């Protein structure tokens, strides 16, 4: 259970600081908790910065508060490049966290993973031992199996969230999906949240009948928080500082943020820091300009890494907010872009660089603040 903390700014931009600073998601929290409690896995799909990581931590906080015997693990695999790195990250997160800190427990861990030469180190701040495995490329599959067996043998109820799960599709090892699926389906005390931000990839993995994870979990797509509920949350937090926000001003924030949690939080965080009693659209614009200004060097570097065709296409997409048909003649002519084949090449490069996102409705610049910066050039 997370200890209650008092924040200087109640609008959290990074991390999870406890239920007091978490906005709504009551229905989603209940759905995730009831599904996991009922011995089913969950697939959580949401665009980047919609708040899926915060929701997972919120759910885990509830579980930990309700039963100290439950163990919750969160693993973000976005930065992993292959199965070996995946296994190593999983091992570092889980090994040693299911045991009491005793010499007997340490010996049991070392015996359980003896073939993988476990090493132990003490955390300098907490004094809690941490373990790592010396995983050889030829042993990565058996190492993964042993980690899952370790959780099973503990007898403890475990919930494991693997964030950006679609990353396993980029691993060079063939059959990673089937391998992981084959191991987790026989764990009677371990249940998973598979979360991801690439909607089409996640849906293909979990909703296609010919894929290993088909019908293996309940699928939940995370939508924007209801505007009225978010307004109530924001106003309650501001009232603690002797201020309020009216519905028109909050609608302006919600609209420019496209309902995406992180952008709303960032703007509200900046507003709170201003300590200005009158919260109006002008203050919102000032805060947005400050946020964009802080990132100007980063945005300029983004452009410097792009070819001229990629830059022009990026600006064109930003100017229209959402482009349903980026290869259409109307769009190409309107923005004086090159031939469709060149636009397609540039578009694929922008998507690969995660500067542009493909959605069912079309293409848009992935970062809303970056899009605003581009439109203001």
Explain the overall architecture.
- By secondary structure, the chain is α/β, with parallel strands linked by helices.
- Helices cover 49% and strands 12% of the residues.
- It has 16 helices and nine strands.
- It has helices at 26-37, 52-66, 83-94, 103-112, 140-154, 176-184, 199-207, 227-239, 247-256, 261-274, 281-294, 296-304, 308-320, 329-334, 340-352, 368-376; strands spanning 41-45, 71-76, 119-122, 129-132, 158-163, 190-196, 217-221, 356-359, 362-365.
- 31% of the residues are buried.
From the helix content, strand content and strand pairing, which structural class follows? alpha/beta
Q: Between the first and last Cα atoms, what is the distance in angstroms? A: 47 Å
Major sheet summary line? 5 strands, parallel
Low-confidence spans: pLDDT under 50, at least 5 residues?
none
The total beta strand count reads 9
Strand content: 5-15%
Helical coverage, percent range: 40-55%
Task: Please tally the helical runs, counting DSSP H or I stretches of 4 or more residues.
Answer: 16
What form results from the Cα inertia axes?
Answer: globular
Write the H/E string, N to C: HEHEHHEEHEHEHEHHHHHHHHEEH
Rg over CA atoms, rounded to whole Å, is: 23 Å
Strands in their spatial order, largest beta sheet: 2-5-6-1-7
Average predicted confidence as pLDDT? 92
């Amino acid at each position: 259970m997370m200890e209650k903390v008092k924040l200087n700014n109640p609008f959290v931009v990074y991390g999870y600081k406890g239920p007091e600073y978490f906005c709504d998601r009551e229905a989603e929290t209940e759905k995730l908790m009831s599904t996991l409690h009922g011995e089913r896995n969950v697939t959580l799909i949401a665009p980047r910065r919609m708040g899926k990581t915060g929701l997972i931590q919120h759910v885990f906080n509830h579980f930990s508060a309700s039963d100290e015997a439950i163990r919750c693990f969160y693993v973000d695999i976005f930065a992993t490049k292959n199965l070996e790195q995946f296994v190593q990250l999983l091992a570092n997160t889980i090994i040693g966290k299911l045991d009491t800190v005793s010499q007997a427990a340490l010996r049991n861990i070392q015996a359980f993973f003896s073939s993988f030469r476990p090493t132990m180190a003490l955390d300098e701040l907490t004094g809690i031992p941490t373990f790592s495995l010396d995983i050889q490329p030829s042993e990565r599959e058996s190492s993964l199996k042993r980690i899952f067996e370790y959780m099973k043998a503990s007898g403890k109820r475990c919930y494991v969230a693997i964030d950006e799960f679609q990353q396993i599709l980029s691993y060079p090892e063939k059959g990673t999906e089937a391998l992981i699926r084959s191991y987790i389906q026989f764990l009677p005390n371990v249940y998973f949240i598979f979360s991801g931000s690439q909607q089409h990839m996640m849906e293909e993995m979990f909703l296609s009948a010919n894929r290993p994870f088909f019908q293996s979990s309940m699928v939940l797509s995370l939508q924007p928080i209801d505007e009225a509920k978010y307004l109530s949350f924001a106003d309650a937090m501001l009232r603690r500082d002797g201020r309020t926000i009216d519905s028109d001003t909050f609608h302006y924030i919600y609209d420019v943020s496209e309902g995406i949690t992180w952008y709303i939080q960032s703007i509200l965080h900046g507003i709170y820091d201003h300590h200005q009693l009158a919260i109006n659209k002008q203050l919102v614009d000032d805060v947005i300009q400050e946020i964009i200004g802080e990132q100007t060097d980063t945005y300029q570097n983004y452009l410097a890494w792009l070819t001229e065709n990629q830059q022009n296409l990026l600006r064109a997409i930003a100017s229209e907010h959402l482009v349903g048909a980026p290869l259409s003649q109307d769009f190409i002519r309107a923005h004086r872009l090159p031939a469709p084949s060149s636009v397609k090449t540039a578009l694929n490069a922008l998507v690969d660089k995660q500067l542009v996102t493909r959605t069912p409705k079309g293409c848009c610049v992935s970062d809303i603040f970056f899009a605003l910066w581009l439109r203001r050039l």
